[in-house]
Design a protein that fits this description.
The chain is of the alpha/beta class. The chain is built from seven helices and five strands; from the N terminus they run βαβαβαβαβααα. α2 packs across α7.
């Protein structure tokens, strides 16, 4: 008789690195699945196009490792904000395409025992968020977590909230992957709160005067990124992973 492979004793529980018996064993202890959802989108000349993806993958891995929850393979593409000029490398899905893809994936995983899906994203564009918020399950619970929905204002110098390729994104990237950041190329470009609201909704494109980022990336540093990341991790932990389970 062949015994099932033991589970990793530490680190994230990534579905793509486990066999079916191991996945069954993890779900027997905790029937939740974290799905990190990124983008392939410009964040200014100082950051990689996978900025959202890199941040959300790190968060998904750390939450999986801390709480013993399965972590799905990353969905690398999202619904991008329109721009007034092309940015080489950008790749976007339509809202209905992302929605249908997530429905298909979640349907497969629900059929094999997942009872709660935690959709983790670092992209605040409303059409992107709507694609996540409207996925359908048979009975499983779906929780959409925008990691930048956390109040970060007291940790920032030039902004009141997360924007795009900004003081927040750039600081966190300097903390997580400094070799992928060229701070010398960072360019500040501010919007009013009303412009930012319209931009997130999709009613305002990235203006041609912006290098691709919105906010003040010039104020970023790695220590600030560490504080931001730890604040976000703690808030998600409290609200999603440590909160009492809902009644059946």
């Amino acid at each position: 008789m062949t015994l099932p492979s033991p589970l990793p004793v530490s680190g994230p529980l990534r579905v793509k690195e486990l066999n079916p018996a191991q996945v069954t064993a993890v779900l027997g202890n905790d029937p939740r699945l974290i799905i990190p959802i990124g983008t392939c989108e410009q964040h200014g000349p100082h950051l990689p196009l996978g900025c959202d993806t890199i941040i959300v993958e790190h968060m998904a891995d750390d939450l999986s490792a801390e709480y013993g929850v399965l972590r799905a393979p990353t969905v690398e593409y999202g619904v991008n904000v329109d721009t007034e000029r092309g940015f080489t490398g950008n790749a976007s899905l339509r809202k209905k395409t992302l929605h249908r893809m997530l429905n298909d994936l979640i349907d497969s995983w629900e059929a094999t025992g997942v009872r709660e899906f935690i959709l983790l994203t670092a992209h605040g564009h409303d059409p992107h968020q709507e694609a996540l918020a409207t996925v359908i399950t048979t009975a499983a619970r779906v929780r959409v977590v925008d990691i930048f929905g956390v109040n970060l204002s007291d940790l920032l110098q030039g902004q009141r909230e997360a924007m795009h390729g900004d003081e927040v994104d750039t600081s966190i990237m300097l903390f997580l992957a400094p070799d992928l950041v060229n701070l010398d190329l960072a360019q500040d470009y501010m919007m009013s709160r009303e412009q930012l609201r319209r931009y997130r909704r999709g009613w305002l494109t990235v203006p041609s005067g912006s290098a691709g980022s919105i906010g003040r990336p010039s104020l970023a540093d790695a220590e600030k990124g560490k504080r931001l990341y730890e604040r976000i991790f703690a808030k998600i932990s409290d609200r999603i992973f440590l909160a009492p389970a809902p009644a059946e």
